[in-house]
Amino acid sequence: MKPFSILLMLTFSLCASLCCPGEEEATQFNISNDNLVQIENNATVFAVDDFLVIETIIPNNQTTVDGQTIQLSNLFYDDVLSESFLEHSLSLYLETQFGTRSPIQLTEEVVFADEGMVNLSNEIIRVLQGYDEASNSFRSRIRIQLKESGTLFLGGRGSFAQSNAIEIYGGIYELGFANISTTIRNANAQGLYEFVVE
Q1: E-strand spans in 66-165?
Q2: Closest residue by Cα to residue 42 from 34, 52, 29
Q3: Alpha carbons 157 and 69: distance in angstroms, whole number
């Protein structure tokens, strides 16, 4: 009886491995769209305690790098679209007296979300853009109260690494993920927005 049981188990295992499809990978939509992040009024001079206002507006209709037109809202379920977000990370840097850039650790006392949401983790500012049906776009507007004087820079997380782009991403596994490579309007060649706090 044992050989029959082993043969039966082997047959079922073989059948299951041949008949059942494997796990499919989520669909990935790669998009390149510059200047989705911008500083209000392109301001470059501030006083201590002024606010740096950062707006991100991502139109719902996008074209992928391979020419496919998609709607980002289709990457989320309709019943939770109003609670769904795209997200990206930013960091704020202060130029030191040696000409290097040092990340500034921010607290909830100086960072505010007027639209969308914001989370802080050390020097990382995680910005979440919610869907706005009226404008058919994903949007965020955050304010950072500037507490230090000097030359400052705003950039994407890892702006001093290999890429000067900001990566915006989001979606649901079953529907697909968007990965949008963008920049800050009027950023320098390193992808950093430079400004002075007097």
Answers
A1: 69-71, 85-95, 101-103, 111-115, 117-121, 124-132, 137-145, 150-156
A2: 52
A3: 28
- Note the CATH number of domain 23-197: 2.60.40
For residue 60, give the DSSP letter: S
Those residues with Cβ within 8 angstroms of residue 88's Cβ, 6 or more apart along the chain or in another chain: 37, 56, 126, 127, 129, 156, 166, 167, 168, 169, 182
What does the domain layout of the chain look like in residue ranges? 23-197
Q: Which neighbouring-strand residues pair with 125?
A: 90, 120
Running DSSP on this structure, what letter comes out for residue 136? T
The pLDDT tens digits for 172-196 are 999 999 999 999 999 998 899 999 9
The residue among 175, 192, 194 whose CA lies nearest residue 183 is 192
CB 125 within 8 A of CB 91: yes
Question: At residue 110, what is the residue type?
Answer: V
Task: Tell me the backbone φ, ψ of residue 116, rounded to 5 degrees.
Answer: 80, -155
Contacts (Cβ under 8 Å, ≥6 apart) of 64: 29, 30, 31, 70
Instruction: Please name the residue that has the structure tokens 């927005």.
Output: 193
pLDDT in tens, 108-129: 999 999 999 999 998 899 999 9
- CA 142 to chain centroid: 14
